Amino acid sequence: MKLVTLSHAGGPAVGCVEQQDVVVLPAPPSGQGLVGWLQQPAAQLAQAAAQARATPANVVRLSDAKLLPALPRPGKIVCLGLNYADHAAEGGHKKPEYPSFFLRVPSSLAAHGEALLRPRVSDRFDFEAELAVIIGKPGRHLDAQNALDVVAGYTCFNDGSLRDYQRKTTQWTIGKNFDRTGPLGPWVVPASELPPGATGLKIESRLNGQVMQSSNTSNMLSPVVETLCLLTEVMTLEPGDVIAMGTPSGVGYARNPPVFMKAGDRIEIEIEKIGVLANSIVDEE
């Protein structure tokens, strides 16, 4: 099952992707949008989709749907840097003893199919293929036995980075939060439909059809369970939070010569059993 957030009837709505259609669902019992439906049993979600499909106005062709970021306004977007050893090495970093956590803001997100903005102040717009974890239940002081209980689903993320701004300070935040640089989607797959912790999945980025990154989520230094345990030593994770799990080697800045995204390019992020997140690039006016 795949759930999307889309613009419908003048506002955001949640839809269930069924082959080439999106069936627009009613508000979930909890009123929490896409996360609210992920919290419901699969049978209840299937029943709601079947009832909604009976009304023609609730059925939209996927190709015609105006998708929004899978979660348009996450409460928190927590990202991991250097979470694959080969990516740390290509940037001249040692294997970290503790994850490099940083935050993104919701205004930096974009939707599948939406043009990403290369900002006017930089031409060093880089790509990063990442697995994103969608939190569905509150969690604090999680352990290895219960950490995955808070995970509602998984999606694709492109941690679009302005490399020169990322290096202006010792913290990376400023280069990771330009408007409309971080697409999230195209949809969320429930955690129950993927391996525990989304391990063992191929992850790849392609720029204009050329494979740039190719790895497997089993190569993460801090897997999903460990990451959730570490984060909840510090903070309460809440429904609708997003955790971006870091990127493997092959990013543009580490190449010789460097390869950065420019207007007219198309970047694709694909994760096995989840889908393909695709975006074009335009220059900011």
From TrEMBL:
SUPFAM superfamilies: FAH. Keywords: Hydrolase, Metal-binding. It holds the Pfam family FAA_hydrolase. One of its GO terms (molecular function) is hydrolase activity. Residues 76-282 form the Fumarylacetoacetase-like C-terminal domain. Signal peptide: none annotated. Its cofactor is Mg(2+). It comes from the Bacteria. InterPro entries: FAH (IPR051121), Fumarylacetoacetase-like_C (IPR011234), Fumarylacetoacetase_C_sf (IPR036663). Gene3D superfamilies: Fumarylacetoacetase-like, C-terminal domain. Belongs to the FAH family. This is Fumarylacetoacetate hydrolase family protein. It comes from Ramlibacter alkalitolerans. The lineage of its organism: Bacteria, Pseudomonadati, Pseudomonadota, Betaproteobacteria, Burkholderiales.
